[in-house]
Amino acid sequence: MMNMIRFNSDYVEGAHPRILQRMMEENTIQRSGYGRDEVCESARARIQKACAAPKADVHFLVGGTQTNFTFLSAALRPYQGVISADTGHIAVHETGAVEACGHKVLTLPGRAGKLDAGQISEYCREYFSGSEKEHIVMPKAVYISNSTELGTVYTRNELLALRGVCDHWNLYLYLDGARLGYGLAAPGNDLDLAFLAEVCDAFYIGGTKQGALFGEALVIVRDELKPDFRYFIKQNGGMLAKGWLLGLQFDELFRDGLYMELSRHAVSLAMELRQALTEMGVPFLVDSPSNQQFPILPDAHLAVLKKKYAFSVQQRVDDTHTAVRFCTSWATRPEDVAQLIGDLRAL
Amino acid sequence: MMNMIRFNSDYVEGAHPRILQRMMEENTIQRSGYGRDEVCESARARIQKACAAPKADVHFLVGGTQTNFTFLSAALRPYQGVISADTGHIAVHETGAVEACGHKVLTLPGRAGKLDAGQISEYCREYFSGSEKEHIVMPKAVYISNSTELGTVYTRNELLALRGVCDHWNLYLYLDGARLGYGLAAPGNDLDLAFLAEVCDAFYIGGTKQGALFGEALVIVRDELKPDFRYFIKQNGGMLAKGWLLGLQFDELFRDGLYMELSRHAVSLAMELRQALTEMGVPFLVDSPSNQQFPILPDAHLAVLKKKYAFSVQQRVDDTHTAVRFCTSWATRPEDVAQLIGDLRAL
Amino acid sequence: MMNMIRFNSDYVEGAHPRILQRMMEENTIQRSGYGRDEVCESARARIQKACAAPKADVHFLVGGTQTNFTFLSAALRPYQGVISADTGHIAVHETGAVEACGHKVLTLPGRAGKLDAGQISEYCREYFSGSEKEHIVMPKAVYISNSTELGTVYTRNELLALRGVCDHWNLYLYLDGARLGYGLAAPGNDLDLAFLAEVCDAFYIGGTKQGALFGEALVIVRDELKPDFRYFIKQNGGMLAKGWLLGLQFDELFRDGLYMELSRHAVSLAMELRQALTEMGVPFLVDSPSNQQFPILPDAHLAVLKKKYAFSVQQRVDDTHTAVRFCTSWATRPEDVAQLIGDLRAL
Amino acid sequence: MMNMIRFNSDYVEGAHPRILQRMMEENTIQRSGYGRDEVCESARARIQKACAAPKADVHFLVGGTQTNFTFLSAALRPYQGVISADTGHIAVHETGAVEACGHKVLTLPGRAGKLDAGQISEYCREYFSGSEKEHIVMPKAVYISNSTELGTVYTRNELLALRGVCDHWNLYLYLDGARLGYGLAAPGNDLDLAFLAEVCDAFYIGGTKQGALFGEALVIVRDELKPDFRYFIKQNGGMLAKGWLLGLQFDELFRDGLYMELSRHAVSLAMELRQALTEMGVPFLVDSPSNQQFPILPDAHLAVLKKKYAFSVQQRVDDTHTAVRFCTSWATRPEDVAQLIGDLRAL
User: Fold this and answer.
1) Cis, peptide link before residue C312, omega less than 30° from 0
2) Cβ of B70: how many Cβ atoms within 10 Å?
3) Cα angle C17, C19, C23; round to 5
């Protein structure tokens, strides 16, 4: 496994060298604990600026699952639940962490990983028109991800429609941005951070998969969600003693545009792969414009490929074909993608 | 605050340079996620060896609060609680994280931060002899820390007595080792890791305060506590995507004796400070042989000191005196301690 | 609303007169609290006998939701979930009580309210063959109801198949018997209590909808689920101070066959209604052999009916038709059913 | 045990005959479920009137533990806790139900079962002046009981002081009235329901120990605590399908002053017992003016008494003496108290 070329996920390497370099330089500076230090302040300011949201609260947490359940446990009362696509990370891959906090995840069928406003509207209309509502979990938040677990991205119009339905039914709109940069770098994307800060009540900017060693930056826009949030972080184990380690990484990622530069790198390589596969006539499980690609390949070919490449199995498609996932990342080497394309062509 | 010399805690600096160096060297190696990699395997093996416990399970988590509530939520059924000294970290400084997992912390009065077997025996005898036990939380685990929150350390005999009472009442014995090295390096200490692995059902070896950037190594000795523990880590947000970052730090700390070397450094400086204060006739809140010292100083002197040094207030003692805490760490500079002693003498 | 004839549910009246009579007779007898009294003992013995399960533990709780979440919180570890049909009461109508205890309800599409062994087998095979299982909630119990929320009933063969798949995947089989008597009284039913005590790990015998004022009798068959269950009852608010009130009701229901007698009464009247509707050519949402009937009726007819009868709306079927629910109960008067049939025929 | 005279608690009999009589009379009236019926409406109106609080929300729950944790889980956010005397029922005898909902019970030493404003003020001043508050559970509610677990009662002035400190620190004041009537009937009492509705944010009027079969009436005065409370009741298993059973009992208790009449009966008999014991020179563990009396008696005498009477052991006082509890209730027969007094005198 050591010499394998890994496309199985986007967190197989460490961090961008600038981050490590700065960690080394500032290693012996004594700082306050728990995210109350100058580096975190600087990183917060950079993110507020990037989001054109000077009043947003920015918190740094360690990982995505932690960020999701910590935010949702703050946003929801005990009898309230969160609407998610059935493919949503909180619905599938977080070991029921949201439920462990006491909240039901109300799943609706995802459309290529996305929710649309119509679904939520219909769900809420039925719920809120009921006569014995207190027997049923009340929807109070909508969870979406961008890019989604299937690599797809939302458009401005789609998010505006979701915002509208959330306003109508008094729901929070929360966006999981574990792969936010890869979504924003997708060809055709029309979102940006400032728009997200307008349209969402809260969202997080992923670091772990986007060039940091670890860490996610939660941006809370809605005022009523801000008070006492640090209690939730601490109680849920997300308050790093040396919080400046988180601040430092985001400070670096949001200085000089590094975050988007790294994101574009990954997407550009993914587009090369997509282009090559398309030219080979390979079908895709879903049409993804971002760093995750889901080609459907013959099992025989996969058996050959897996001797040299790590990738992940998404789902069986028929008796002889499987949809798999290839991820690029900020650290992916162009020559590795070229080699993969070459090997795919040879098959 | 930037030019202040910080003795307020033992997590004010980064990590030992060897750790950062190795992070840099291995930054681009592609690895499996979630702690299933070669570096974590190596670190686990080193810790098992240091503990003379080849069958122990070793898990790496991100922080102390997280480690405590994750372990306790795995060890306890919903109606069971954990006995702790009233000064125990889980009882005071973790925002009720154990309660947030549904479990009562059953506090007994600490004796200089420690529990003794007699207290627990008495508590359990009364509890288990009751006629309507199901109306009262059942004690099922004992939480201790070493060194304690007051810097004190347990002896072999004390731990053997605790083990005895735990066996008698069928309780788990769990040791919080956030400052384990500093405890083991204390003058007069007669514990070692192998003994802890014999006497405890589980304990953790702290990294955050002991030379790592972050991270704690949980050692589970008791077989019945081992199954499915990774589910608990993931559900509670403690499973780092790049788990090798945790492994790497402990691999380095447990190679060539670095962990104890750093611990001895901190304690040695703390002993210098203690010696000097004692010579000055300064009384202490508690007699601590480890890296935390709790002198009782005149408020007037503290007002002067705090212009130059950061320390933490422990408690008011009388109208004109306060017990404060000075911490040394693996990174404390001898010249800073010398300067502090000089300034104390001058007052 | 006062003079309306209620078919909207099966808990619209009080209790069978024998129960009230006995309550009055024994009102001033002083008894031990919390279910540790002679009446509860007698009722437990009767239920054990009816189930041919002398070693089963029998606990009396106050209501169905409480019984479900109390049992499941005892049966599941924090990372485990319970499989349910998407129409299951715990999945829909208990305000997320199971999630509030921390557990995900894993819904599979119900087949007329029932789960089949094949679905569960497929779900578990996929789950347990996964490589990163700890990221996903582990299925550990199967929740079924009989009669179901749609009035349908399981057969012996179906339950044996479920038992088989539960054994294979190490799942508990739990049956919600809120309407157990009505299921057992259904034409064609081949189950009985003794069979349920063989095939299930636990189940409850409903009282609230079956002739009692309130109360459910939980029968725990599997040994490993028995210890300390009273702690769960107390912690979850289900331990009635005057527990003998629960015992007394079940003691009466299980003396002289009253429980099944009442059940047959309700089902017999439901069958009259079904027969009449069938003769009228009215279609049904589901073919129910028990006390709940789900005819699909023209909205115009329903508008007339609702002036005189209470019934509940199940779902819209098309622009002009709605499936509604008529429930009979142990207390339903034959003349009321006759009148309803007459009115339906007149429409 | 059957022929024993029970003074061990105040829930050893059924209900006042008027309640049973009315249950019988109204048994076959068909009613809406879940507390949305005319009887509950009537009972709510009577309680609002008795409390001079026409805008208070009144909810009927089944038992005391359930009422306490349901209310507190609605009142507290996840990081908030409730202050209680260390003798408080929620702190001792509810199997950690409040913690099972995620909230720490912050215990302060009770003074004869009561909290005073000074304690709470001191606790809050220290807490809210802290610099790292988010590491510690935030106090948000104060739990008191009246009469207390030790039979003592609060005065108007004491409650006004508590109200003041709650206002100052933004805490809810919640009163557990499991034995509220017995407290209000105590000689020297200067409280009444209208005063409680002014001074508390919420409180409950106990039924179980006060003449009902079961049931507690929760009165929510503070507006911000009212919304969606029925969700909490349902989710926590407290929503009785035949909710009118609860309404009916309180409707009867609060018609014609029955509630206080029964309370005075119990207290009057307790005062006879107290008077007699005092005349015999028997000391008391606590000076209780209500239906619970805690004499300290020689073990030799208790050994004789327990052949004929049930009572409960409160605590060992010295090697030869034990404090025990004798409870009277609405149903206690004067001749039984007379007999007990006679037997005590004979010893």
Assistant:
1) no
2) 25
3) 115
Give the pLDDT band (50/70/90) at residue B2. low
Which chain D positions have a beta carbon within 8 Å of B135's beta carbon? 93-95
Label residues C54-68 b or e (16+ Cβ within 10 Å = b).
eebbbbbbbbbbbbb
A26, B20: Cβ pair inside 8 Å? no
∠ CA A200-A201-A205, rounded to 5°: 65
Query: Cis ω on the peptide bond leading into residue B147 (within 30° of 0)?
Result: yes
Tell me: the pLDDT tens digits for B71-92? Answer: 999 999 999 999 999 999 999 9
Alpha-carbon gap, residue D335 to A131, rounded angstroms:
53
C241:D208 CB<8 A: yes
Q: Are strands B312-318 and B321-327 parallel, antiparallel or unpaired?
A: antiparallel
Chains that touch A (3 or more CB pairs under 8 A): B, C, D
C255: left (phi over 0), alpha (psi -120 to 50) or beta: beta
Q: Is the dihedral of CA B79, B85, B89, B92 positive or negative?
A: positive
> What distance in Å separates residue D232's CA from the closest CA in chain A?
7
Pairing status of strand C312-318 against strand C309-310: unpaired
Q: Is the ipTM of this complex over 0.85?
A: yes
Q: How many Å lie between the alpha carbon of B218 and the closest alpha carbon of chain A?
A: 15
For residues C217 and C204, give the distance between their C-alpha atoms in angstroms, rounded to a whole number.
5
Cβ neighbours of D240 in C, within 8 Å: 62-63, 214
Chain A positions touching D135 (Cβ under 8 A) are: 234
CA–CA separation, C24 and D105 (whole Å):
40
pLDDT of residue B131: 86
Taking the C-alpha atoms of residue A205 and residue A60, their distance in angstroms, rounded to an integer, is 10
How many Å apart are CA A177 and CA A194, to the nearest integer?
14
Q: Please state the separation of Cα A316 from the chain's center in Å.
A: 24
| Interval A162-215: pLDDT, tens | 999 999 999 999 999 999 999 999 999 999 999 999 999 999 999 999 999 999
Please measure the distance between the N-terminal and C-terminal CA atoms of chain C and give it in whole angstroms. Answer: 22
Q: Taking the mean position of all CA atoms in its chain, how far away is CA D169?
A: 25
Chain A neighbors of D74, CB-CB under 8 A: 78
Summarize pLDDT for B19-56 with one digit per residue, the tens. Answer: 999 999 999 999 999 999 999 999 999 999 999 999 99
Whether residue A237 and residue B13 make contact (CB cut-off 8 A), yes or no, is no
Closest CA in chain A for residue D72: A78
d(CA C124, CA C282): 40
Q: How far is A86 from chain C (nearest CA, A)?
A: 12
Rounded CA-CA distance A81/A127 in Å is 12
Q: How many CB atoms lie within 10 A of CB C324?
A: 24
How far from C122 is each of C104, C108, C118, C303, CA to CA, in Å?
A: 19, 11, 6, 44
Rounded CA separation B31/B12 (Å): 30
Q: Which residues pair with B327 in a beta bridge?
A: B292
Token pair for residue D185? 């009937």
Separation between Cα atoms, residue D133 and residue B296, nearest integer Å? 24
Q: Which residues of D touch A (CB under 8 A)?
A: 34, 73-74, 77-79, 101-102, 132-135, 138, 228, 230-235, 239
Neighbours of D80 (CB within 10 A): 23
pLDDT of C191 > 50? The answer is yes
Residue C193's Cα: distance from chain center in Å? Answer: 14
Contact C13 D30 (CB under 8 A): yes
Query: In a 3-state reduction of DSSP, which class is residue C221?
Result: coil
Quote the tokens at residue A342: 């070459």
- Buried b or exposed e, range B29-56, using 16+ CB within 10 angstroms: ebbbbbbebebbebbbebbbebbebeeb
Set of chain A residues whose Cβ sits within 8 Å of the Cβ of C78: 100
C-beta atoms of A93 and C137 within 8 A: no
